[in-house]
Design a protein that fits this description.
With 843 residues, the chain is mainly beta. Helix content is 10%, strand content 43%.
Amino acid sequence: MVALANFNPIWFVRRVRLLLACLVVCFATPRNAIGAPKELRPPPMGETISVEVMRGGSRQITLKAFEGRGNPLGYEMVTQPHHGKLEDFQQADGNRQGFASVTYAHRNDEESKEDEFTFRARALIGGGVSSPIKVKVRIIDAPPKLQITRAVDFSAAAGESDLQQIILVNEGGGMLEGRVAPKEPFHVEGEGHFSLGRGRMTNIVIRFSPQSTDAVAPQTLSPAPADPSAKIILRGVATAPFSAGAEPMEVLADGERAGTIAITNLSTSPLVLDIDIEPKGIVDAPATAKIREGETARIALSIGANKKGGDLSLRICVRNPHYSQEFATQAPAVPAEPELLTPLLDFREKTEANLSVTNSGGLEARFSLELPENIKPAGGAVKFAVAPGKVTNVQLNIDGTGDTSGKTAYLDLGRKDKIPVAVLWPARLQVLTKSLDFRSTPEAEIVVENCGDVAGSLSLNLPRGIRQLDEAEGVVVSARSQTKLRLGREQNSNLPAGIRVIVELGRDGKIGLPVISTRSIENEVFAWQLNKDVKLEQSADGKVSISWATDKQGWTNAQLEVVQEGAATVYQPSIEDAGWWAAMKAWWSDKIERVRKTIDGQRNFFKTRTKMPGEGSENEVSDAQAQPAWNRMGIPAQDYENSAMIWRVSAEAIGSGERKQASAEFRLGLAEKLLLSVQETVTAPSNQGPAVPLDQPIWTISRKSEGNDLMVTFALSHGSEDTQFAVERITGFRGSRESDTGGVCYATTKLPQSIATVANIGFVSSAGMKLRTVTVRFKNLQRGSAMLCRLVPTNNPTGQIPSAPFLIEGPPARRFPWRWLLTTAAAMLVSLLIWPRLRAMAN
């Protein structure tokens, strides 16, 4: 209310009028030269601009205009192009007169040839504007340019094809036309023409078809005349469609020579191949072969056994219309095939025989003969040859002397084994009896053996006081047999010393047998009998020893001797001196072994303390010191392996005290486990195994402990199913002369079932022998005890005698290992004494 009261309308009107007048004057007067005369200024001007742009490309275009006073210009677009677009428009500098720029980008059509757009310039001072200025754009194309695969490599088997494609691209403009036209062995699949616009691409397939494996020259092609720089190189390798080779030929057992050809199909399709072999008519093989792709076929070659011959060179050709391969192979010679035509040589009725050998092979055969000493070839030669398809006859003569027992001829054909040729010998008589002993009996026998294959005859010339109990005058001995002639001493006849019985053996001569009629030791010859009074023993661990009786009636103090160069010396086992260090090691090893055995014996005594005799000998009797009438000596390996060593037993004659030879000289027959007289020949063991006395145990089959009981299963060399056995304990024995128990009589006690229980198991077979098995359970064996026992047949249906003795021992007595402790303490003491000195030396 106060403000409205102070308002002056007259003053307000005056102020409005003054303000209006000032505004009129201001707008009516020019701003640049108020009061000056008006001056006209020309607008900016420009010329038409013409440019070329690559089809589908872009280009920056400078926009130009001019104003006479050099004032700054501004640019603006008026019309747009029809076949492109404007990008990146940049104005001129607003402080001075200059040019603007814009980028024209073609839309990449194929029809447009030209384009245009307009712009204008405005003067920034004075306000002049130019007329529209035209920019003409001519669309141009790049020259044609062919991009092509530069080189293509082909590989195909002869007669097949390899397809490869090449890529062609027009990297330029316009239209690019051309043709791909290679030469043999390259071909185009189709026409090979092409027409490519800008940026267009096509592919052309080329086939490589070689008809042989010859080298293929590379080809260079220029497919586009418009672009002669574009070239393509075609290279090809023609490979073999198959490979072939021969494997070595071999001679079969029937004489046929056989081999194979290996052919591999290296192509991608089946092949039919022709096979030619030179020389023709020799080898049996198929003329053609069909082989699938990727397959290896083996073509059999054979030369029949009827086509004999030596080495043969074969030329083989495998071919098809596009390729052939030749190679050679060698057919080995058919070896000689000698064959014996004479199964035996018969000298029974005549002194000559022929041995015939034929050769059915293709080469010359050679052979040799190994003949007994009394058979000789007529010409003296022992090596012969047989031509292929021929027969060689060798005449052999016999001289009628020499031993014919077991003599065989051998034909050596150069193979692994020689062919034995049986020989039928004439009658060959020999007397096996060495002397006639009438000291204890009025009768004696002469044993005559015929080693020939025909019967022979003999006669006797007897001295007075001896007569033939067989009344036949002429005695005929059959082939390969023996005949015994019984002779008797007439009662009250006094046979003088030195008389002989003459045995006339026909063409084998005569022999005189000495007659022994007195019982004096001086005339007794070799009273100790081999394998009875003198025995060979071999334990299960291979140790060899000889046992002999110490005394015999009329003899005493027997000992074992070895004969060398006709002189006999007491045998001493060979000892190899191993040196001081070896002796020390052996002493220490023996101590350690004793401790180990003591410990093992405490753990399981049945495994180490049960003993059995080796091969039924009296070993255990000697070990138990229960038979002082026998001596035994171990033979080291270097002695029993010496086949030249000769042994014998000598003894002192009671009365005269003179030491004489008491047994025949002998060698060790380890194969037969017998002592062999030096006149005997060691023979190979038969398939039935060595001969074993029927009353001896062979081995322990099993041994098992149950608490304090021991179960042992024995194998005996013989026994019928009805035989029952009991166990006897031997408590004493004494020597006796020529007793039925082998020179020893035993004092025995039958063990009750509370001590030994016998179970008759049955039979087993070993090394071709039928063995009786017997199981014995020994009960409650006491520690440190020992029993000398034997098995005795109870019902004895076959007249068997008791077995050889064997020893059964209980567990060893417990012993404190004093020696081991003392040895250990001594070693520790020595170590304590020398240790300070060793430390002092070290410091």
